[in-house]
Each structure stands twice: as C-alpha cells, then as structure tokens.
Amino acid sequence: MKKFFIYLVLAASINACTTKDNAHLNKAEDVEAKDQMALSSWSDSTRQLIEAWVKDVTDTSSPNFIPVPDRIAVFDNDGTLWPEQPVPNQLIFAIANLKALAPTHPEFQKDQVLKGILDGDLSPMKKAGEIGFLKLLAASHTNQTEDAFNLAVRNWADTARDAKFHKLYKEVIYLPMVELLNYLRANEFKTFIVSGGGVDFMRVWTEEAYGIPPYQVIGSYAAVKYDVVDGKPVITKTAGSPYVDDKAGKPQAIHQFIGKVPVFCGGNSDGDQAMMQYTSGSKYKSMCVILHHTDATREYEYDLKTLSGHLETALVEAKEKNWLVVDMKKDFKRIFSFD
Amino acid sequence: MKKFFIYLVLAASINACTTKDNAHLNKAEDVEAKDQMALSSWSDSTRQLIEAWVKDVTDTSSPNFIPVPDRIAVFDNDGTLWPEQPVPNQLIFAIANLKALAPTHPEFQKDQVLKGILDGDLSPMKKAGEIGFLKLLAASHTNQTEDAFNLAVRNWADTARDAKFHKLYKEVIYLPMVELLNYLRANEFKTFIVSGGGVDFMRVWTEEAYGIPPYQVIGSYAAVKYDVVDGKPVITKTAGSPYVDDKAGKPQAIHQFIGKVPVFCGGNSDGDQAMMQYTSGSKYKSMCVILHHTDATREYEYDLKTLSGHLETALVEAKEKNWLVVDMKKDFKRIFSFD
Which residue, of A64, B53, B181, B339, has the greatest Cβ tally within 10 A? Predict the structure, then answer.
C-alpha cells in the first residue's frame, strides 16, 4: 500500500505539472490546485461541497473557523472505507483463524457450530443466530496473546484475497475515501475510525491502508488481561466485558476514547446515525457524509435488505439535517484504485 | 500556560544565542544545542542518559533505531507530571464540585459521608474507607452531562490554587517533565498520559498544561450514556462499569487505547510498575524513568508511608531492569517553573 500512496502522490504531482503552468502559480494557487487534486475521484458537485466546508472552517477570518485542536473527523469502516458485502471481511478472517487454531484446539470439534464451520458448513452457525456468530468470534478472537492475534491478522491481511475483486482485502478500499482522509489531514484534521468491527483486528492494517495509526482506531472490544509469564509481560485477549461500538455505542466510545465532539463524520448505515447526530450537535459548523451503495457493477447495491449496512432512518435524518448523501454510482468517478 | 510555554521557548532561544556563537553553528550543531537546552532543568547525569537513549533510538544507522510510528511514550500523571501530596488534586476538585452541586442535590444531605464533607468534616468519609471515597467520587463525577462536567473542571482549573505553592494547580507541574515531554515530541515521539486519575477530569486541562491532547490521555473511567434530549445529543456520565487504570490496569488500558507497546515510560510508584514491565518487554530498546520524591523543601518527600504514590517493589525491579531512578532533590535543578 505504500507503493499505492507513492503512486497517488506522484500522479498528483504529474497532473499538477501537466495541467497548469507552474510558472504562473503563486503559492496560494498551488495549494488550491493540490487540494482539488486530492478529491479527484469525487463528482464535481460532491467535491465542491466538501471543499467549500473545509475552506470555510479552516479560514481564520470565517465565523465558522474551527481551531486545529478541535478538527476531529470520525469514519465508520465497514461499508464506509471498505466493502461489507457479501459478508463483513472480519467474518472471513474469523473463519480463517478458526481453521488455523483448530489443530491446537480439539475442543472446537465438540461444538456443533464450530465443527460445522471447520467442515465448511455454515448452516449450524446461521441457525444459532447471534449466539452462533459470537461463538465463532470468541473462538477465533479470544484466549490468545496480543502478539499471536496480531500476527494472525497480519498474515491474513498480507495474503487473503477478496473473492469478487481478486485483490488483497487491504487493497479493496474506496479510493475517494482515501483521498478524503488525506485531504482532511492535509487541512490539519485528525482522522479516526469509529467502527463496529473489532479494534484489534483493524489496528494491524489501518495505518498501511488508510494512514490511520492504531491509537486513532476505535472499535468493538472485550477485556484483556495482563500477566507476567516466565518474566515476560503478556496481554491476553478475553471474552469478558464486551463493548459493541455501534449505534449509541459510537458516540459513547467517541467520548471515552477521543474526549472531543467530532466536526466531521463519514458513515453508510443506520449504525452510524447516532455519531452523525453527535457530530451535528457540535458547537462548530459540522459536516456529515453518508455513502449510499448504489453500484451493483463496480461494487454492491444495497440499503434495506441486507444484514450489514442497513440504511433507512439515517437517510430520513440526513434530509432534516442537511447531511451529504453520496450516491456511489453517480458520485464516485472511481471506486477502487484498480478500477 | 501558553505564556509559560512561550517563555520557555524564548528563554531557550536567548540561552542558545548567549552561550554559543550562532555563526559557528552548522545545522546539526544547532539542533544538538536546542536538544540539550530542552532538558536544562535536569542534572547532567540524568540528562545525558536520556539524551543518549533518544539519540540512539532515533539514529537510522543504529541497530536500536525505532521507526517513528512505534515511538510511543507513556507517562503517569499524579506524582509524575504534577504533585499528589498531601492528597491527589482530583480529590480537591471532587470536594469543590460536590459543594457546587449540593444546592440542586438535596439528597446529598441525607448521606452521612457527603453531609460530612459539605460541613467540612472529612472524618465520616475516612471512616468509611474506600466506600466513602467512592461515594464522593460518584456524587461529584457522575449523573451529569459531559458539557456540565467539563465546565466544572474548567472553572476549577482556572481558579483553584494549591495550598502549599499558592499557584493554580495546572501551573504546579514539574518543569523537567514538561521539558522531557517537549524533547520527546521534538524527536517524533507521541506522548500519552496513562494515569489512575479520572480521564474526564484530566482531559480538560492536559493540552494546556502538558501539550497532550484529550485523545492521548488515558485514565480511570466509567460508562457514559448517549441520548437525544429535545432533539439534542447528550452524553451523560454514569457510575456503571468502572475501570481503574492502575497497576495491571495500565498495560491493559495501553493495549485497549493505544494498541502498541510503549518504548518509553515515566512513573513514580508501584502503580506504574506493570506498565514499566510492559514497556521493558518491547521488541525495541526501551527506557523507563521513575521519579523518587526526595525533596521535602521544594516539593514533598515520600515513598513507603503514603496513601498515594507508594514506591517500593518498583525500586527493586528498577535495579534488575536498569530503569532510571531520578532523585528529585539531586536530579531536578528546578522542580517548578516558579522555583
């Protein structure tokens, strides 16, 4: 992914040189040219709305100026920065890790749900509903050290490929959203992920994929336990005190982890509605962006009839509160860097 | 405090100009001169140890080089960045806020412990032990919105003065430690607070006092609740699911909030021992610093016989693991900026 970012920067530089005569650019124009380049995969109308807001709130002479320490931007992950169809990617990892752990965990074979998954049959898990899913999550994500888990995610992120796009999952990320993250950071915003996904799962690859360091990633989690084993400190992941970072859990986690009200929020489902409300309640002029998945060809088309990413009530509130709804088919010139 | 930082920078610049002839400095020497200036309140021996480690781990040609994303430095707060005697400052705030809340909380009068505190008699609280303290904490810190609580802390931080030093509490902070925070940040470390103190209490003033933003402050906390009241989003502090960020709770919280193993740790008590062990377990060459409070005249002298800041087993492990023990009387040329 580093190569990909280098490519982006190079492409932007080359474009800047070929489309404008640099000799005629003063510094301000140069900065503006680069800013526009940054959102080049967005439709003109959405790009202009985002740029207008950023220019307004970063202009010291504007009544809407936001001081740098308060420039907090939060983003959902599944369906906002990367796809969540046909199932969330973390589920793919969970199954892969269950299989990797199985040889040293004979007890998995004694559980109907886990045995089914290991035999390639997901129906016992689906039949068990939420309990089935939580069983898979517990077996694949807990009762192991932070080092072992990080390594498992690292191996998965470096090798596993998306079935539809035939790319590494960490490469199947929305190019316009990566541009938006870069654009906001270039304007001195701090970018955070606030996702229902597992925080330990995300943190391994978010810096490489999105430029977001682990301590700016907030997600669902459970308790960990500290011990000294044979003189060495060990953190072990447990299934205790789970926290689900979804719906009202998102603004609550923003308070707990960030301690400031965001001024920008990106999301794509009703699970993000509460953190958009919270963002809209900022004392500053805020901006919320909702991705509407409308492109069955280039990505997926869904809103109401889907397990992950149900989008309904947030669209109603978007109209009331003037949140920007992005029609991915119309508004994303490119969806992935490999398009 | 901004003035104070500006003063520091100015003083450093003036010193740099008067002690060295700038005309003879090349850029590397200039940087080195500034670095040394940055730890000017430390004894030469401790300053050199810290500088040697920083120079080693930030030198790309050193086998001990630490890449920038992994330069995580964690600091305890009470007794490490500001005093914790005769009682932790947060207790002073708790009593002040209990009094401020009392007129609208007649139920406080019905509780022996709270009524005692309001009448200026702490003995019922002391008699009740930990339960008494938790009663005060719950009454003064929970069942209020994040906005109301932040405002209460802000007012306290802007007006309340330390009884011994007659300065605002947020000014009674250890100058050598502020220099160390600045020095580490100048060398591209991210500085975090990992304290047993309440996170919501600290976050209001840590940016101003130490240059540490709210999202880099980790502390004890309890659950918060998100609601929409009259169309407005509201976060309310509750007493539910308390997390005590002390002892083993510190490395656990570092995993939960930062997601990386620190390479530098500053602390002053056995409560910091676990996070020093965790830091020492880093795959990189790490550094741990323990403040030993030895100066009864300029600050306080304590280690074994104290409620807060008990220091005993950490000193034993410090010898085994080569942690730097700072004798504040000998090693801090100045303790406070107003000394």
Answer: B181
Q: Environment class of residue B27 by beta-carbon count within 10 Å: exposed (0-12), middle (13-18) or buried (19+)?
A: exposed
| Cβ burial, residue A6 (10 Å; 0-12/13-18/19+) | exposed
- The pTM (predicted TM-score) of the whole model is 0.90
Q: What distance lies between CA B129 and its chain's CA centroid? A: 25
**CB neighbours of residue B322 within 10 Å:** 9
Residue B307: pLDDT band with limits 50, 70, 90: confident
Name the percent of chain B lying above pLDDT 70. 89
Is the preceding omega at residue A86 within 30 degrees of 0, hence cis? Answer: yes
- The interface pTM score, or ipTM, of the predicted complex is 0.90
User: Which residues in chain A are closer than 8 Å to B248, comparing Cβ atoms?
Assistant: 225-227
Predicted confidence band at A25 (pLDDT cuts at 50, 70, 90)?
very low
Which residues, including other chains, have CB under 8 Å from residue B151's CB and lie 6 or more apart? Answer: none
Both structure tokens of B29: 């020497």
Distance CA B144, CA B324 (A): 42
Q: How far apart are CA B259 and CA B166, in angstroms?
A: 39
Mean pLDDT, chain B, integer: 91
Which of the residues A145, A200, A207, A215 would you substitute to probe the B interface, choosing the one with the greatest number of B C-beta atoms within 10 Å? A215
| pLDDT higher than threshold 70 for residue B288 | yes
- Give the Cα separation of A337 and A168 in Å (integer): 12
The ranges of chain B annotated as CATH 3.40.50.1000 are: 2-13+38-85+172-331
CATH architecture of B2-13+38-85+172-331: 3-Layer(aba) Sandwich (3.40)
pLDDT at B6: 31
Chain B environment of A249 (Cβ under 8 Å) = 226
CA A153 to chain B, closest CA, distance in angstroms equals: 14
Helix (H, G, I), strand (E, B) or coil at A195: strand
CA–CA dist A219, A197 (Å, integer): 5
Give me the phi and psi of A81, to 5 degrees please: -110, -30
Interface subset of A 205-234, CB within 8 angstroms of B: 207, 213-217, 221, 223-228, 232-233
Q: Which residues of B touch A252 (CB under 8 A)?
A: 223-226, 235
Those residues whose C-beta lies under 8 Å from the C-beta of residue B339, and which sit 6 or more positions away, are B175, B298
* Peptide bond between residue B86 and the one before it cis (omega within 30 degrees of 0): yes
